[in-house]
Specification:
Elements lengths: L1 E5 L8 H11 L3 E4 L13 H13 L3 E5 L16 H20 L4 E4 L13 H22 L2 E4 L13 H11 L4 E6 H7 L4 H8 L5 E6 L15 H9 L5 E4 L8 H18 L2
Parallel strand pairs: 1-2, 1-8, 2-3, 3-4, 4-5, 5-6, 6-7, 7-8
Helix pairs in contact: 3-4, 7-8
C-alpha cells in the first residue's frame, strides 16, 4: 500500500520543492491537481509532461494520479444545460486523461462539486443522466490510455449529485467498463454514509468497484487531526488486500500545508508499520 500526498497541500512551493519535501517526509508519490501545474492544464504538451514526470521521479517519487480535474480552465460543467459547455468539459477531461498516463499516473478522481451542480429549474434525474453520459465517454478515453477514471461520492455539504458509494456504484455498474470505478474519500464518507468507513470498505471492496482511497477527517483536516480513527480504516484495507495508493487530501491545513503534510505522514506511517 503506497501513500501519496495531494500536491495542492504544498501549493505555495514550486513543484521541485513539493517533491523534495514530500520525499523527505516519506511519501511514495504525489497525486496532482492539474490546476497547480498550469492555468490551462489541458494545454500541457507531451514534452512538458515528460519534464514534470522527470522532476517528480528525480526526487524518488511517482505521480500516482490526478484529482480536482475541473477547477481550470473556468466555466466547465458536466451537467450544464448548454451542450457546448458540456462538450468543452469532455474535451478538457479527455486531454487530462492522456496527461495522467503521460505522467505515469494510474487513476483520475472526479470530484469537482461545483462542476456537477443541478441547474436551476432542472431535476436531479436530468443532472444524473448528463453525468452518466459524461462518465461513459470518460471511461472510453480512460480505457484507451490504460488508466482508471473514478467518480467520487461527495458530502451533501458540497453537492446533491452522488453522495454515497452506493449511488456512485449504480452509475458505474450501468456503464459497465473496467476503466470506470468509484472511490472512497474518508471525509465525505464520514459525513454521508450510514455506516463507518471500515464498514463501507468491508461492503464495497469485494465488489471490485473501488478504484482509489483518499484519507482526510470529516473536519476537513489531515488524518489524525480529528475524531476519525484511521487505524481501523487501514486494517480494513489490508484485510481486503488493497495494495494500491492511499492519497492524503486535507482541505484545512493546520498549522499550514507543510505542517499538515508532515503530521499526516508521521501518523499514517505509524499505522502502516503497526499493521505489518
Amino acid at each position: 500500500m503506497k501513500i501519496a500526498l495531494c500536491n495542492e497541500v504544498l501549493g505555495d512551493l514550486s513543484l521541485e520543492a513539493q517533491c523534495e519535501l514530500a520525499a523527505r517526509l516519506g511519501y511514495d508519490g504525489l497525486e496532482i491537481a492539474p490546476f497547480t501545474l498550469a492555468k490551462a492544464p489541458e494545454r500541457i504538451t507531451a514534452a512538458e509532461a515528460r519534464r514534470i514526470r522527470g522532476v517528480v521521479e528525480a526526487a524518488g517519487l511517482v505521480v500516482t494520479g490526478l484529482h480536482w480535474l475541473l477547477v481550470k480552465p473556468s466555466g466547465l460543467s458536466v451537467t450544464d444545460p448548454d451542450p457546448a459547455r458540456r462538450r468543452r468539459t469532455l474535451e478538457v477531461v479527455t486531454r487530462l486523461i492522456a496527461l495522467c498516463a503521460e505522467l505515469g499516473g494510474k487513476v483520475l478522481v472526479h470530484g469537482s462539486p461545483k462542476q456537477r451542480e443541478v441547474a436551476a429549474g432542472e431535476t436531479l434525474d436530468i443532472a444524473r443522466g448528463r453525468l452518466r453520459d459524461f462518465l461513459a465517454e470518460a471511461a472510453e478515453a480512460a480505457a484507451q490510455h490504460g488508466v482508471v477514471y473514478c467518480i467520487e461520492p461527495l458530502s451533501r455539504n458540497e453537492t446533491v449529485l452522488v453522495n454515497t458509494v452506493a449511488e456512485a456504484a449504480e452509475i458505474v455498474r450501468a456503464i459497465d467498463r473496467p476503466s470506470l470505478r468509484t472511490m472512497i474519500d474518508c471525509s465525505a464518507a464520514g459525513l454521508s454514509e450510514s455506516v463507518s468507513v471500515p464498514e463501507v470498505i468491508d461492503h464495497w471492496m469485494p465488489t471490485g468497484l473501488i478504484g482509489h482511497v483518499q484519507v482526510n477527517d470529516p473536519n476537513r483536516r489531515a488524518p489524525g487531526q480529528g475524531d476519525m480513527r484511521f487505524a481501523p480504516i487501514f486494517a480494513a484495507l489490508k484485510r481486503h488486500g488493497y495494495d494500491r495508493t492511499v492519497a492524503v487530501e486535507p482541505f484545512d491545513y493546520v498549522p499550514d500545508g507543510p505542517g499538515a503534510a508532515a503530521f499526516a505522514a508521521g501518523y499514517l506511517r505509524g499505522i502502516r508499520e503497526s499493521l505489518r
